[in-house]
Every structure is written in C-alpha cells, then in structure tokens.
Amino acid sequence: MLGWKVFLVLWLLVTASLGASIPFLKPSFLNLKEDLEDARKEGKYLFIMFHQEGCPFCDRMRRVTFQDKAVGDYFTKHFYMVEVDIRGSNELVDVDGKKMTEKEFARKHDVRLTPVFMFYDQEGKVIAKIPGYIEPRDFLILGRWIVEGHYKNKSFITFLKENRR
Fold first, then answer.
1. Domain 22-163, second-level architecture
2. Could you tell me the residue ranges of all domains in the chain?
3. Is residue 9 scored above 60 in pLDDT?
4. Which pairs count as long-range contacts for 63-68, CB under 8 Å and 24+ apart, including other chains?
5. Can you give the residue ranges of the Thioredoxin domain (predicted)?
6. Across residues 120-145, what is the average pLDDT?
7. For position 15, what pLDDT does the model report?
8. I want to staple 92 with a disulfide (CB 3.0 to 4.6 A). Which of 30, 36, 156, 157 is the partner?
9. What whole-number distance in Å separates Cα of residue 143 and Cα of residue 153?
C-alpha cells in the first residue's frame, strides 16, 4: 500500500512539473517570418530560446524563471517566444524567408551551447543574443531593456548593473 502512495505522489509531481505552461511561448510551426509578423501586429517582440534535450539550464529556465508570476505577466504582455532545438532537424523558415533546419539556423547564429535567448526588433533585425540561465529578476530587467529601447544606446550588462537593486 505504501508503494502505491509513493508512486502516486511521484507521478503527481512529475506531471505537474511537465504541465507547467509558459504563457508567452507561441505555438509555432517554426515559420519565424510569420511569427515575427504576428508579434508585430500585437506590438510585441519576438525572441528565440535556443535549447537542446538534456540541458539542465534550459529546464531551470522553464521551471523557475518562466514560472515566476512577474516574468509571466511582463513577457506575455510584450513578447512571443519560440523554442528552437540546436540539434533539431525540423524545417524552419527564418525571418527573411529562407528555409533551413533548426540545427542550421543555430549554426547561422553561432549558437552551440544552451540556453541562448535571441531577440528581434519589429523589423526582424537581431538586437540581442544573451546566453545562459537567467534568474527571474534579471530576466525582467532584460525584458525592460528591450521594451524600453535601452538596447539602442546601452549594453545589457550596464543596464543590468544600473537596475539591480
């Protein structure tokens, strides 16, 4: 009887963690040109989360940072996120309309490790590529750096230092 209860608790924990949704994750057919247009129509920015299977820092972003209420609220209001597997073989259409695999797209943007977050402006120009796990507080600052236009005249590191309080 005890074994059954332990199994049930473990099953509930696993399914709860897998079922945690990311509100700003855009259901995508990996057509970034269309995704950018959808984001633009809603006044949002498009960003890519490059990931790979087995990446503990990608999983931590999903479990911790993306589940933070303030991050969820802010990023849902201002961003669309699309995930791209750096080892993936699915066809992808870049913002310029060129077709390639996810792996080729990652190579094109010199992404070899994960996670990496690549942000586009409203015209489809890459405005930032930020690597690594980012705590919720710093991810919010990153979002503000993009949305408020500080990326045009200030590095993210400078903006982060000024806004960490």
1. 3-Layer(aba) Sandwich (3.40)
2. 22-163
3. no
4. 63/17, 63/20, 64/135, 64/136, 65/133, 65/134, 65/135, 65/136, 65/139, 66/22, 66/24, 66/25, 67/20, 67/22, 68/136, 68/139
5. 16-152
6. 98
7. 36
8. 30
9. 15
